[in-house]
Every structure is written in C-alpha cells, then in structure tokens.
C-alpha cells in the first residue's frame, strides 16, 4: 500500500516505532456483509502491516493478509481504511513545517481481490514487471517511428484501442480474478499513455518554491 502526501514528509525516525498505537489500518466490508451474512467471520479480514519506507512524499506499507481470498469477494470492493490516531512526529512535513491536516487523518480506498502468496504468484508478478517494461519500450519506439511513418502509429492505435476496451471491463461490474486485476493494473498506464512518473513531468514542470513564497509573504505583511 502506498500513500502519497502533498508535501515531503519527515523520514528521520526508526520505522519500527510506527505501530497501532499511532495508526489504525483495517478492512471495512462492502455491502455491510459482516452484518447481513450469517456465516461471515470478521477474523478472516485480519492482517498485519509494516512500514517499509518513507521517500519524499510516498509512504509505503506492507500488508500481509491472513486469508487473501476473503478480501473483496463481492462485485463491490471492500474498503481499506487508514486512520491516524496520533500524528506525533511521523506525519510532520519539514517542507511546510507543520503536521498533517486533521481532515486527512482518515483515508479510505477500495481494495481489489488479493492473490494468495506462493512461488507461482511471485513468478507471475516477476514476469508481469518484465512484460510491463517491454511493452512500454515497444510503445515508445512505435511513437518515435510514427514520426517518420504512419504505418507504425496506425497499427499501434488499433492495438491500444483493443486493450482500452478490455481494461474498462470492470466498469460493467464484472468480478475479475486477482491475477487478472493485477495484469490490468500493469496495463492501465500504457493504454492511457501515462508512461512517465509525475516526478519527471508535473512536479518538475510545475515546481513551486515554498520557501520563496513564505519570504514574499513576510515582505508583504512586515
């Protein structure tokens, strides 16, 4: 699980200090199935979590589910809830010199079906990562060739249109196996031409100097 903040967060602390005393992370069952389903066992949604890293604006947390098959079994997906009980120094931004705003203390996001951990799952994910890199390279090469010949670009457009139709199948509320969901997640960036990280595009092009902005504010009000 990755959480992206608006500002760079402090990372100068021991990651093992961040625990359930400061943060609650839990699954909120969809369609209130924990109330209306007689055979529902709430313990099936239990999991453990560990803070892996905080790099600039991105906090990465590793989740390990006790029963991956119990996550989001319905058409409507369960919600993963991240709630900050005590911000302390974990959620302080040296960039703006203040803690996280309280209105962002509780975050919710739909969570897709989870793959069961196994050697085959690891091999599948590894092959997907390699395939994603290869497909992006092919797409960029085709775009460059399209500058010189229309044939490469027309073939690419036909291929991408087909992929876009397949990728949008979940809009029809079709329940997909977890391995297919992971595959779609890898392809979505390519079919939407989102090939570059925002760090290399938006953030560098639209860079905002907060220190200079604060200095200018002081000059205005002094």
Low-confidence runs of at least 5 consecutive residues: 218-222
Total individual domains: 2
What is the number of E strands? Answer: 8
How large is the share of residues in beta strands? 15-25%
Ends: how far apart? Answer: 44 Å
What is the typical, i.e. mean, pLDDT? 79
Sheet with most strands: strand arrangement? 1-4-3
- Spatial extent as radius of gyration: 22 Å
What is the helical fraction, as a range of percent?
Answer: 25-40%
Oligomer: single chain
Short précis:
With 222 residues, the chain is an alpha+beta fold.
Describe the structure.
The strands form three sheets. A three-stranded antiparallel sheet has the order 1-4-3, with no helix packed on it. 8% of the residues are buried. The longest helix is centred in the middle third of the chain and has 28 residues. The chain has six helices and eight strands; from the N terminus they run ββαββββββααααα. The protein has two domains: 110 residues, no CATH class; 87 residues, no CATH class. It is globular and about 60 Å long. The protein has 222 residues and is of the alpha+beta class. The protein is 36% helix and 19% strand. The C terminus is likely disordered. The N and C termini lie far apart (44 Å).
Structural features:
single chain, 222 residues, 2 domains, 3-stranded antiparallel β-sheet
Helices, strands, pairings?
Layout: E1 2-4, E2 23-28, H1 33-36, E3 47-55, E4 58-65, E5 78-84, E6 92-93, E7 98-99, E8 106-111, H2 119-146, H3 150-167, H4 178-191, H5 202-205, H6 210-221
Helix pairs in contact: 2-3, 2-4, 3-4
């Amino acid at each position: 699980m990755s959480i992206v903040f608006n500002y760079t967060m402090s990372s100068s602390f021991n990651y093992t200090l961040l625990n359930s005393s400061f943060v609650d992370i839990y699954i909120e069952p969809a369609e209130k199935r924990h109330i209306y389903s007689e055979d529902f066992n709430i313990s099936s949604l239990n999991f453990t979590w560990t803070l892996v890293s905080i790099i600039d604006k991105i906090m990465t947390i590793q989740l390990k589910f006790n029963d991956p098959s119990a996550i989001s079994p319905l058409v409507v997906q369960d919600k993963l809830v991240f709630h900050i009980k005590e911000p302390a120094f974990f959620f302080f931004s040296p960039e703006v010199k203040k803690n996280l705003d309280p209105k962002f203390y509780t975050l919710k996001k739909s969570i897709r079906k989870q793959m069961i951990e196994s050697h085959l799952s690891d091999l599948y994910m590894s092959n997907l990562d390699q395939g994603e890199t290869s497909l992006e390279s092919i797409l960029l090469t085709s775009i460059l060739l399209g500058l010189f010949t229309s044939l490469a670009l027309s073939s690419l457009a036909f291929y991408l249109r087909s992929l876009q139709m397949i990728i949008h199948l979940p809009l029809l509320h079709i329940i997909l196996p977890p391995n297919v969901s992971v595959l779609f997640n890898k392809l979505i960036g390519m079919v939407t031409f989102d090939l570059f990280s925002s760090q290399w595009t938006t953030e560098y092009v639209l860079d905002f100097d907060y220190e200079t902005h604060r200095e200018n504010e002081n000059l205005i009000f002094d």
